[in-house]
Amino acid sequence: MEIRQLITFKNVAELNSFSKAAKKLNYGQSTVTEHVQTIEREIGVPLFDRMGKKIALTSVGKELYTHVIALMEVYDKIVNVSNSTDSFKGEIGIGISESLISYRLQPTLLEFRRKYPNVKIKLTSDNCSKLKERLYNGEFDFLITLEPYREFTDLVVNKINEEPLTFIRGNDSKLEKFTMIKDERFINECILFTDRDCQLRKLFENYLYNKKITTDNTLEFSSVDAIKHSVSSNLGISLLPYMSVKDMIEKGVLKVIENDDKLNLNINIIYHKNKWISPVMKEFIEYFVNSLEKQ
């Protein structure tokens, strides 16, 4: 069997789909099927249970998947065996919080791609909980998250920077300060939340709970951009990273709700404790950290 066949198997296992793996790898579906069947013939047992249109790893398939993950680690070391940064090549898989792609990562991408055009960078945004699940599954080399700092027994978490949060309202809202809320702590404003698994949502809900602030009117969005534009349309109030609303505040499209408490989330670099940090990964992280210092 060949390394490309094992890479195909890995993608089918992670995507639970031959067709999705074919699309991701730019193969025909027949090629993906042949790659998996070649491995099955050599091993002598099926790697997937095929149940109609659904597939699932067999017990042997699950065991092989763990070995393939370990093999990919070694393969990555071989690809990046040279210590010369001039010869950097390969692929970096990064799971990242949505706001950081839009408002913090762009300068890094621009500079890094100019210097290392042979490095392929794959970015995937999701909420922090799902990103960690996918990191454990081997889908990413590392994560860049926006969330409270937290230690894990099997993950390395490096706190890079703090990002301030700000409460925002539309121009028609009369809620200029949270101190304006009366003793009953009930507000008529609609509160716009990110999705339920988002760390920003959890921080926001904890803040409201601790302040005993309640409302019967809430909306949930999956996108920070959708929230800030909805607030600017006077749909309600929200709590977002300041970096994501700075321009709209300066233009007068959004207004800040004054608050005595300073709320922040941390930018963290996260990877598995057993992960080998290749020279190209290390270089990208250094570019990102240096870029943050300039912003």
TrEMBL record:
Query: Does the record carry DNA-binding as a key word?
Result: yes
Give the record's keywords alphabetically: DNA-binding, Transcription, Transcription regulation
Q: Which GO terms describe its molecular function?
A: DNA-binding transcription factor activity; transcription cis-regulatory region binding
The yes or no answer to whether the keyword Transcription is present is yes
Record domain HTH lysR-type: where: 1-58
By sequence similarity, the record places it as follows: Belongs to the LysR transcriptional regulatory family.
Q: What is this protein called?
A: DNA-binding transcriptional regulator, LysR family
